[in-house]
Design the sequence.
């Protein structure tokens, strides 16, 4: 069992920044790979950012150059730094984990609301 808890969401004006945190607990494994997703009203959930093989990271085209995913292994925490936020970034942001060698994410956090005003 893995528990993921997001925090750091809130209301910001366009052009502002937020840093989201995802704290993991339970039976975390070294083979776990973390990612961030978001779901806006009336939209499907979409991939935002995640770690790739070799310690690199992948990003959705819509957030490249603005968002950065990072981690603190000692704290079992993953972060999403969001800069130059746009109104279209408004969504519930969730962290999730998958296992190496799998594409499906099997554990999800409850999500944290990010609202960007114009």
Sequence:
């Amino acid at each position: 069992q893995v528990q993921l808890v997001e925090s750091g969401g809130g209301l910001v004006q366009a052009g502002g920044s937020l840093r989201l945190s995802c704290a993991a607990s339970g039976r975390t494994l070294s083979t776990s790979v973390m990612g961030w997703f978001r779901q806006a009203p009336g939209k499907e959930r979409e991939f935002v950012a995640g770690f790739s093989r070799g310690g690199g990271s992948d990003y959705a085209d819509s957030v490249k150059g603005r968002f950065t995913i990072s981690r603190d292994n000692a704290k079992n925490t993953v972060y999403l730094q969001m800069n130059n936020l746009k109104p279209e970034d408004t969504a519930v942001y969730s962290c999730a984990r998958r296992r190496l060698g799998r594409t499906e994410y099997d554990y999800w956090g409850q999500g944290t609301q990010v609202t960007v005003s114009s």
The mean pLDDT is 94.
